[in-house]
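job 3f2a | input accepted
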Amino acid sequence: MIPILPRRRLLTSAAATAALGALPVSPAAAAAVPLTVARRSLEVNGKAASVFGIHQDSGTSGLVLDPGQRFAVALRNRCGEPTIIHWHGQTPPVRQDGVTQTRLETLIPTGGEQGYSFLPRTGTHWMHSHHGLQEQILMAAPLVVRTAEDARADAQEVIVLLHDFTFRDPREILAGLTGGAGAAGGQSMPGMSGMAMPMGTSSGGTAAPDLNDVEYDAYLANDRTLADPQVVRVERGGLVRLRLINGATSTAFWISLGALQGQVVAVDGDPVRPVPVGDFPMAQAQRVDVLLRIPSGGGAFPILAQREGDRQRTGIVLATPGAAIGKVAGTATQLVGPADLSLERRLAALVPLPPRRPDRVLRVGLTGSMRPYAWGIDGKQWPDHVPLAVAQGERVVLDLVNHTAMAHPMHLHGHHFQVQALEGRKLRGALRDTVLVPPRQTVRIAFDADNPGRWLLHCHNLYHMATGMMTEVAYIGFRPGY
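job 3f2a | predicted structure (482 res):
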């Protein structure tokens, strides 16, 4: 169950926030919220599937924190195999990031428990497995940290978590893509079972872009297809804040608001200057917050996510009381093109990085091809990666140069960066933690090195990361102590 916060709950939260004051809750006063990773049964297209989930004791998927609430979680592993959960978008101390690749943390054994406690970063984020291919089996959930402004707003919050779904064991998909070579780094790949096929025919040396490594059985919005979509009741004339999360492992979407017009007010949890939108692209792991005004006359309003380069889609329906809800087809009448930077070019951070000359400029080459299916950074796969060295206090600039024929959504752990240039064209763009780098293009990002440690930088296409497109940003002088 994905949480939907009605306006009545929001107004109550606003009163509670006023009583608490502006200071965050102290660590001692914050009770740890139990979160359990477990197997669950899900019906997709009339067929039962065993998938993962991350839920509270109430059954609610993921976590929504009120203003001032500390991130204090007791993570319990009951899924039947070792796992670890990454708090995507958060900037915790490095030993609480929820990854094992840097060897600063260890897997949580089945039956085990791990505690986390830190001051959270506000905004729309999410949580997902960072072990093997578990994320493909829906080991993911929302993670929303609301601000005092959110609590004061007379708006209904609706969280939408998108997925690509397969009945097939992800290990078989990876083997089909790689010809049996498997993952870089020798990680174990937990799995499942039924019906996806590798796609893509051109090599990294061709001019045409490659799209959609994998053909999926279904595309989900809050665990449901358009055959039986979630219907969210909204008020006539009411304000809705859509918190969209692309949790798909290998799929970028075009979001369509249909008859509604919206304003993008945040991306990856960071506020931006409002931008009017109707249709816009959304890469893997990105989040987009959209404000919508429901017409005073009411009605039913599908919010759709269509797979790039295809007609398949998923979504939810916003509907006022008494509105007739018609059937929404799971395939669109027309194809959409590849996800692009059309929205990115229009975004500007509400609170940009302070102007400053960079202390360090690093060029990061994204390399690899569909045939052979092998991806890397600067020609190296993760086991042989060369860390990107930075020093604490530096302003660091990364030029992400995509030498391949496929787009890569690049995610930096432990930091949020500002997009500063697209194909050499300067801009004071959005703050983000994940940015799409289209084929043969360059994206410049900048961040302040203010969180010491060793932090992963990787493509958030799961199969690209699994075959080697990952490195790390390593602080000079950081002593891991393990």
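job 3f2a | Residues 3 and 60 are 6 Å apart (CA to CA).
job 3f2a | closed
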